[in-house]
Structures are given as C-alpha cells and as structure tokens.
C-alpha cells in the first residue's frame, strides 16, 4: 500500500516535471530519442497498475483505495500516451522519421521457388528460373 502510493507520487512527479519542461520556453537540448523517456514512464505506470491489481487481489487494498488509485494511474497513463502522440506528431510535422518502439515497416512480400530458391515479387504458377511448379 505505502509502496504503491509512494511510486504513484513518483510517477506523478516525473510526469509533471516532464510536462513542465515541455511547456516551458527553454530551448531543450534535443534528446537522442524523445520517446525513450516517455516510454520509460509508460512502462512504470503499467508496472504500477500491475502492482495495484496484485495488492488488490491479495486483499491489501480496499475497493475504494484500489479504484481511486487505479483511476489516478490511468489518468497519468492517458497523459503520457498523449505526450507520446504529441511528440510523434511534432516529429512528423518536422518531417523526421519517427522511431517508435514498434517498427511498423512491412517487409515486401516475395515468393521463393522451393526448387531453385529464386525469388519473385509476384506469385507465379511456375518458376521463371527453373520452370518447376511453385506451390503456395
Ligand atoms: Zn525455380
């Protein structure tokens, strides 16, 4: 219980600090990856949610405590997710490539001949190299 409340305050403090800095007029030295910091906070919040649920299941938290703590954590989470979106949009507006934690780039699909290993961009009935049937 005490640990949860303490870590909750820590997260709130970090988020508040982050937002305060972002809203200030200071020209910040650009961090290498602006997401890393926010992703760390996000991870911490998820951990807090997990801890909350864990302590609640153990009966260490009352319903009211659990609900109010959960709401507070979820609110922080919403703010951090909003921050991440804002950074993404800002970077996109600046024409920078957005390095998210999940690379969304799809590999171009190729079809490989099982007989000779030749690759083709289109699905062919017969291999253009060795002429054998290319089964899907
Ligand atoms: Zn072939």
Provide structural commentary:
This protein is mainly α and 136 residues long. The protein has two domains: 2-93; 106-136, no CATH class. Helices cover 57% and strands 3% of the residues. It is built from three helices and two strands, in the order αααββ. A two-stranded antiparallel ribbon has the order 1-2. α1 packs antiparallel against α2 (34-57) and α1 runs parallel beside α3. The protein binds zinc ion (ZN). Zinc ion (ZN) is lined by residues 113, 115-116, 118, 127, 129-130, 132.
Describe what is shown at a glance.
The chain is an all-alpha fold and 136 residues long. Helix content is 57%, strand content 3%.
What distinguishing features does this structure have?
binds zinc ion, 3 helices, two-stranded antiparallel sheet, elongated, mainly alpha, single chain, 57% helix, 136 residues, 2 strands, 3% strand
Shape: elongated
How would you write the strand order of the largest sheet? 1-2
Radius of gyration over alpha carbons?
24 Å
Helical proportion, percent range: 55-70%
SSE pattern, N- to C-terminal = HHHEE
Mean of all residue-level pLDDT scores = 81
What is the subunit arrangement here?
Answer: single chain
Poorly predicted tracts of residues = none
Distance between the termini: 57 Å
Structural class: mainly alpha
Biggest sheet layout: 2 strands, antiparallel
Itemize the secondary structure elements and their pairings.
Elements: H1 2-23, H2 34-57, H3 63-93, E1 111-112, E2 119-120
Helix pairs in contact: 1-2, 1-3, 2-3
Zinc ion binds at residues 113, 115-116, 118, 127, 129-130, 132.
């Amino acid at each position: 219980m005490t640990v949860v409340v303490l870590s909750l305050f820590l997260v709130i403090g970090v988020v508040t600090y982050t937002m305060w800095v972002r809203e200030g007029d200071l020209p910040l030295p650009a961090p290498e990856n602006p997401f890393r910091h926010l992703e760390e906070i996000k991870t911490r919040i998820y951990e807090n949610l997990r801890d909350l649920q864990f302590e609640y299941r153990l009966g260490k938290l009352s319903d009211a405590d659990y609900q109010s703590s959960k709401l507070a954590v979820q609110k922080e989470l919403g703010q951090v997710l909003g921050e991440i979106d804002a950074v993404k949009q800002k970077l996109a507006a600046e024409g920078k490539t957005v390095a998210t934690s999940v690379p969304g780039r799809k590999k171009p699909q190729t079809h490989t001949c099982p007989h000779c290993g030749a690759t083709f961009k289109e699905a062919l009935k017969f291999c253009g190299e060795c002429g054998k049937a290319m089964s899907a």
